[in-house]
């Protein structure tokens, strides 16, 4: 990327770039925390900048609008979380019921933590706030595709077998429903039984899908 | 209920009571419509009163606070919807795969219409608005129990069989996730495949639950 500004010696440019990247990352992480705790109404650029220890001006330099900031934040943290999950797949049990259960637990964990709570606030705000709607639809499509692909891979699901694709989708839908059920109260005890049972069913279906 | 006011002759009291009940019902229905369309931020008592064709004072006579109005509205419309579903169960096919599919479709329909959308806005608002939180937790418990009971009944599920209770719960969680997936875009085409596949699985599991 040779631009006029590239006349600056590389040595003095790099720390500046890396400080800027660090600021950006702090803003994105603070934005997800704010959304999860305070909801859309309470999450302003000012509140996020304060939490990130950055001036409001610096925040606006990185993200010109509130919508830019929060959409980028949910996208960034989701990508990081998926990457962390991918890095951990070596720890999963080998193919079989124990692996299926571990994968279902992993998916459900993604949907019941602060990231899902943040995404939920953004999602519901997008239903009535025009400037958010198109962005969140695009984000939802992107995240949905990535999560589905990861689930298929971790489960070792044969998507060409009729019904398997829909069964994996149903698993993501159930996880989303469990996330919602965990919003106001700790749904953990009930969820444990549902997840265990779902994993048993999923394992049996992946091994031998029911005939159409 | 004999009170001093009961001195009014019954004939003139009854029409007044029935007008009051009709006003109350109009307010409750308008409140659910507003929530579904405008979200929590846009749903004020004034907006609901206008839509119901009632003065703001009359609305406040029935529901002293905004929280009273919207909590009562979601509760009322849910009860009406469940009663309507119960009234229609005679139309369901006899026990077997066709009935299971019809029941799953019915449950998912409840979670993908305007009533769920209204409840979702209220639910997410309750995560950050203290005056709503306790009421919505109580409402969620009540509605969850009623819906679960109805699902068990319509499916003819034997809850004493290990795993059956959790399988029905998973069905409700999946339906809730499908409701969320339908918030910003029409998820109907994808949903059809998921519902059909889940109905097949559910039917097989209810007939012969997988061993623990």
TrEMBL record, chains A, B:
InterPro entries: Homeodomain-like_sf, HTH-type_TetR-like_transc_reg, HTH_TetR. Keywords: DNA-binding. PROSITE patterns: HTH_TETR_2. Residues 1-11 have a biased composition (Low complexity). Residues 1-22 are annotated as: Disordered. GO terms for molecular function: DNA-binding transcription factor activity; transcription cis-regulatory region binding. Residues 21-81 form the HTH tetR-type domain. It holds the Pfam family TetR_N. SUPFAM superfamilies: Homeodomain-like (SSF46689). Residues 44-63 bind DNA. This is TetR family transcriptional regulator. The lineage of its organism: Bacteria, Bacillati, Actinomycetota, Actinomycetes, Kitasatosporales.
């Amino acid at each position: 990327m040779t631009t006029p500004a590239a006349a600056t010696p590389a040595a003095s440019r790099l720390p500046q770039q890396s400080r800027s990247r660090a600021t950006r990352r702090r803003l994105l992480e603070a934005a997800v925390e704010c959304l999860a705790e305070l909801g859309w109404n309470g999450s302003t650029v000012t509140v996020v900048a304060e939490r990130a220890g950055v001036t409001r001006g610096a925040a606006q330099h990185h993200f010109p609008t509130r919508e830019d900031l929060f959409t980028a934040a949910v996208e960034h943290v989701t990508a990081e979380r998926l990457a962390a999950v991918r890095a951990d797949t070596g720890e999963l049990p080998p193919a079989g019921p124990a692996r299926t259960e571990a994968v279902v637990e992993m998916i459900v964990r993604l949907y019941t933590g602060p990231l899902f709570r943040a995404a939920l606030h953004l999602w519901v705000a997008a239903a009535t706030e025009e400037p958010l709607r198109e962005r969140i639809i695009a984000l939802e499509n992107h995240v949905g595709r990535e999560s589905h692909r990861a689930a298929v891979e971790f489960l070792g699901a044969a998507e060409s077998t009729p019904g398997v694709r829909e069964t994996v989708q149903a698993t993501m839908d159930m996880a989303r429903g469990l996330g919602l059920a965990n919003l106001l109260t700790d749904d953990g005890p009930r969820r444990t039984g549902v997840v265990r049972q779902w994993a048993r069913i999923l394992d049996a279906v992946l091994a031998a899908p029911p005939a159409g």
